[in-house]
Amino acid sequence: MLLQRFLIRLLTMLITLFGVAVVVFVVIRVAPGDPIAMMLPPGATDADIARLRALYGLDKTIVQQFFIWLSGVVRGDFGTSISLRQDVLGLVFNRLPATLELAIVALVMAVTIGGTTAVIGARERGTAVEAGIDIASGAALSIPDFLWGLVLILLFGVLVPIFDISGRVSPQLDLPFVTQFYLFESLLRLRLDLTWDLLKHMLMPAVALALPLAAIISQLLKQSLKEVLDLDYVVLARVKGFSETQVILREALKNAALPTLTLVGVQFTFLIGGTVIVERLFSYEGLGNMAIDAVINRDLPLIQGIVLVFALLFVLINLTVDMMYALLNPRLRRG
Amino acid sequence: MDEGRAQRRGVSPRLWLAGGWLLLALLAAIFAPLVAPQDPLAQDLMLERLPPFWIDGAEPGYWLGTDSLGRDLLSRLIFGGRIAFIVAFAAAITACLVGSTLGLIAGYFGGWTDRIISRVVDVWMAFPPVLFAILLVAVLGTGLSSVILAIAIIDWTRFCRVIRAETMGQSRMDYVENARIAGYGRIGIMLREVLPNVVPSIVALLSLEMGIAVIVEAILSFVNLSISTDDPTWGGIIAEGRLSIHQAWWVLVFPLITLILTVLSFSQFGEALKTRFDPVLR
């Protein structure tokens, strides 16, 4: 049952990825600008142009180009970036860790803030505290990450300049890292000075990304908690003498968390989508920032590679959440 | 029931505040040449980085101050509103027409029609929206119609997903079955019976989508990919403000407040309209 579900999801995932590859490929090839034109030195001859077009495979038909590109992708060859003249996969892997670290820190923040306010709101249900949480989460949800980023730049970059609002790490620092996962590696190496510097750079963009998701978690989890809190087994726990907070944390939470989990999965992909502009806003050297440069430079192979990696990330997250849901939901587990 | 009534009581002030701001901003944008105190493009280096009116050094007539080229901020915001509202209405309505139609068809007919439409939606959802928008505008070329088209191409899925789910729910209800027994055709039932019942959701989404379109346009002009750089846009002003943030904070603060108020108003307005139109809550 579980395995069957997994295989079906895996198949749909591959179809989705194929669809994404087709759409990106078609969209990019309709682009009027010639990517080759930008690479040519002044006074290039027609023969030079033809040679360069052949080098990047641009002289073949669009269908041929697609399958040449696709068969490369399957073998892990995403082509060569036109503007940076480096292997696309290498460039993407160089930047992906920065984006993943940012997204994960933001997710942890969102779950912490959203979870805490949901529990407090459920405990204080019907009071001014709950009303205050509702208003705050309503505002956090309606304002998108781009605007939160700007608000944070104004508040903590200019008004009270306590955090860095530009870059990933202070440029004067000597970095001993062998991987691109700076934050995780600094923790493993116990270089807490570097961890602090990285966090100071990461905090503002992460909060901007986390706030809308925190609001969604808060609203949904509080709603499910309030529903569960009226059920018999919770009332029984209360009669046994547990405090309201204990009742929520020990009894209600594990049953109320399931609907939230499904939603967090979808919303986490939105959060990752948001890194594109938030990284730009904070000059954070991640995948999204590189993507915008790639679009501006009309770097076709790089754009294709980045979009496909984002899409892969999205479908993998959805698959993981779906499987977790199936594992945790007793009704599906036994069925 | 009580909750429904309480919600309705809460509707009015919200609807008035949100609607009031949107109406004010819209009227200012429409009558921009009459309302704006200065020419939004006029540069004057003698007047560069003037602060807003309550700070020493402000000049009369430049209420919200000027940017680093001496252009009047308030006038630029008013003229920027024109682009924002044109994009909001045109993009949201296009996305709504395409998405709602496909959602209605997928939800009502089900089967293969539904499977194909849903698969396309899945593919669309696997794109990071902002990157997709930037990519589309780069491909279509900058300009107002490209921005509108790009937003519609990306966001029709929002309407499609919600309307599909709602239509599925409605199609299972007794009244649809009754209409079928009464001998109405499938398309007739879809348009005359199901559609009116999903209209509240469409209206709420439409208002929400207008707010989203305003933001996407601001993001596109922030990365300098929206319309021509001459015309003032909210995102373009924000991009300038981000650069001169330590010298002239007001160039960032005022467009930011304008954007936040507009986005909040569109979403609140949508919520309020939904409650008002909903036959069950009414």
Automatic annotation (TrEMBL), chain A:
Q: Where in the cell is it found?
A: Cell membrane
What name has this protein been given in UniProt? Peptide/nickel transport system permease protein
Q: Where is the ABC transmembrane type-1 domain?
A: 96-325
GO molecular function terms noted in the UniProt entry: dipeptide transmembrane transporter activity
Give the family from UniProt.
Answer: Belongs to the binding-protein-dependent transport system permease family.
What are the entry keywords? Cell membrane, Membrane, Transmembrane, Transmembrane helix, Transport
Q: Which domain of life is it from?
A: Bacteria
Please verify whether the record's keywords include Cell cycle.
Answer: no
**PANTHER family given for it?**
DIPEPTIDE TRANSPORT SYSTEM PERMEASE PROTEIN DPPB-RELATED
Identify the InterPro entries for this entry. Answer: BPD_transp_1_N, MetI-like, MetI-like_sf
Q: Name one Pfam family in it.
A: BPD_transp_1
Q: Which residue ranges traverse the bilayer?
A: 7-31, 102-122, 143-163, 202-221, 256-282, 302-328
Bilayer topology: Multi-pass membrane protein
GO CC entries: plasma membrane
The answer to whether keyword Transmembrane helix applies is yes
TrEMBL record, chain B:
User: What Gene3D superfamilies does this protein's entry cite?
Assistant: MetI-like
Q: Which family does it belong to?
A: Belongs to the binding-protein-dependent transport system permease family.
Q: What is the protein name stated in its UniProt record?
A: Peptide/nickel transport system permease protein
Annotated transmembrane regions = 15-36, 83-110, 130-154, 202-227, 247-266
Q: Which GO terms describe its cellular component?
A: plasma membrane
Q: Which UniProt keywords apply?
A: Cell membrane, Membrane, Peptide transport, Protein transport, Transmembrane, Transmembrane helix, Transport
What PROSITE patterns does the database record attribute to this sequence? Answer: ABC_TM1
The record, for CDD domains, names:
TM_PBP2 (cd06261)
Where it sits in the cell: the answer is: Cell membrane
Q: How does the protein's chain sit in the membrane according to the entry?
A: Multi-pass membrane protein
Domain (ABC transmembrane type-1) ranges: 81-270
Under the heading PANTHER family, the entry gives: D,D-DIPEPTIDE TRANSPORT SYSTEM PERMEASE PROTEIN DDPC-RELATED, OLIGOPEPTIDE TRANSPORT SYSTEM PERMEASE PROTEIN APPC
Q: Which domain of life is it from?
A: Bacteria
Major place of localization?
A: membrane
GO biological process terms held by the UniProt record: peptide transport; protein transport; transmembrane transport
Query: Which InterPro entries does this one have?
Result: BP-dependent_transpt_permease, MetI-like, MetI-like_sf, OppC_N
